[in-house]
Design brief:
Order of helices and strands: HEEHH
Strand order of the largest sheet: 1-2
Organism: Bacillus mojavensis
Protein name: Bacteriophage SP-beta YorD domain-containing protein
Keywords: Coiled coil
Shape: elongated
Pfam families: XkdW (PF09636)
Structural class: mainly alpha
Number of domains: 2
InterPro entries: Phage_SP-beta_YorD (IPR019094), XkdW-like_sf (IPR035950)
Strand content: 5-15%
């Protein structure tokens, strides 16, 4: 028997290690009487066993998302990543082209300054 799980059935709103403490030593488990802060008596071994059996009879919690749903989400994410990578590559190329254009403009301006200086305009 797992006393912690039994306690979750008996006291669903209680917070373990705040409202009560379950001690364990090997296979032995017990509720620590010195760390019991609930306004109810400590359950007996029979009450704990019955609660644990009730816990075992409960339907398994919904696992949530199926493998197929996860795979579909992954595919969608991969497609979005591909689009983003393509956009990043395009932006990187645009920046590279802008830098090249700026360098060309800088060279043209430098040549114009030299020419205007040689012709006595400046």
């Amino acid at each position: 028997m797992n006393i912690g799980l039994a306690m979750s059935v008996l006291f669903p709103n209680a917070v373990p290690n705040r409202d009560y403490v379950v001690m364990a030593d090997g296979d032995q488990q017990w509720v620590d009487e010195n760390q019991w802060y609930l306004d109810a008596p400590i359950p007996s071994a029979a009450e704990l066993e019955a609660a644990y059996q009730k816990y075992l009879e409960q339907p398994a919690p919904d696992a949530g998302t199926s493998v197929e749903e996860l795979q579909a989400g992954l595919t969608t994410t991969q497609q979005a990543n591909s689009v983003l990578i393509k956009q990043l590559n395009e932006a990187t190329e645009a920046v590279k082209k802008a830098k090249e254009d700026a360098e060309t403009a800088h060279q043209i301006i430098a040549e114009l300054i030299v020419l205007t200086t040689e012709k006595g305009v400046l």
